[in-house]
Design a protein that fits this description.
The complex is a heterodimer. By secondary structure, chain A is mostly beta strands. Helices cover 0% and strands 53% of the residues of chain A. The model of chain A has no long low-confidence stretch (mean pLDDT 95). Chain B is mostly beta strands. Helix content of chain B is 0%, strand content 53%. The chains are: A mainly beta, B mainly beta.
Chain lengths: 114, 112
């Protein structure tokens, strides 16, 4: 158990819908990362937050948005869902923003768009 | 942008034999290098990382990797594998802009 929690574990929804994925970082961690893992595209970095501020942005679609709240939990919002958005979405947390801080990954949220 | 190539998508190896999982990345400018392991139905776990300094990096579970700047490689090795090492292994690069790039993964299967 990494100490990072993600809810829900599974999510099934229809095309065109909007969903919110939630991540609670390890106690004391200030940085949160979001990743997408799919068969088509492999593992992709989406976005990083540090203490509520966006720190780095990767291959995140405009239909997706994220934020980190004052209590440090983070949410990833996916809208106008397409079949190709079906994937495993991971959240990771680390103590700081830089590469020397190890990232601890949550168990993921499996999103299925039908 | 970086690209990360894991040359072998599947590697079968007998128990107690040595293994090398290969990783090459595209640019020789300053990057940070990582290997992660993913067990079925779990998130990624850091095996080891190279930030600077000694080019030979030791990680958890007996794994090590060697950073080779001239060949832009970061191959992962273990001298003697166990059944429990069966998993998916990912090489990753983080650039100075905090962008992450992952390889496509290598599925290691340890055969009893």
């Amino acid at each position: 158990d990494s100490g990072v929690t993600q809810t829900p574990k599974h999510l099934i929804t229809a095309t065109g819908q909007r969903v919110t994925l939630r991540c609670s970082p390890r106690s004391g961690d200030l940085s949160v990362y979001w990743y997408q893992q799919s068969l088509d595209q492999g593992l992709q970095f989406l976005i990083q937050y540090y203490n509520g501020e966006e720190r780095a942005k990767g291959n995140i679609l405009e239909r997706f948005s994220a934020q980190q709240f004052p209590d440090l939990h983070s949410e990833l919002n996916l809208s106008s869902l397409e079949l190709g958005d079906s994937a495993l979405y991971f959240c990771a947390s680390s103590g700081g923003a830089g590469p020397s801080y190890e990232q601890y990954f949550g168990p993921g949220t499996r999103l299925t768009v039908t | 942008a970086q690209s990360v190539t894991q040359l072998d998508s599947q590697v079968p190896v007998f128990e107690e034999a040595p293994v090398e999982l290969r990783c090459n990345y595209s640019s020789s400018v300053s990057v940070y290098l990582f290997w992660y392991v993913q067990y079925p139905n779990q998130g990624l776990q850091l095996l080891l990382k190279y930030l600077s300094g000694s080019t030979l990096v030791k990680g958890i579970n007996g794994f090590e990797a060697e950073f080779n700047k001239s060949q832009t490689s970061f191959h992962l090795r273990k001298p003697s594998v166990h059944i429990s090492d069966t998993a998916e292994y990912f090489c990753a690069v983080r650039d100075t802009g905090n962008q992450f790039y992952f390889g496509t993964g290598t599925s290691l299967t340890v055969i009893p």
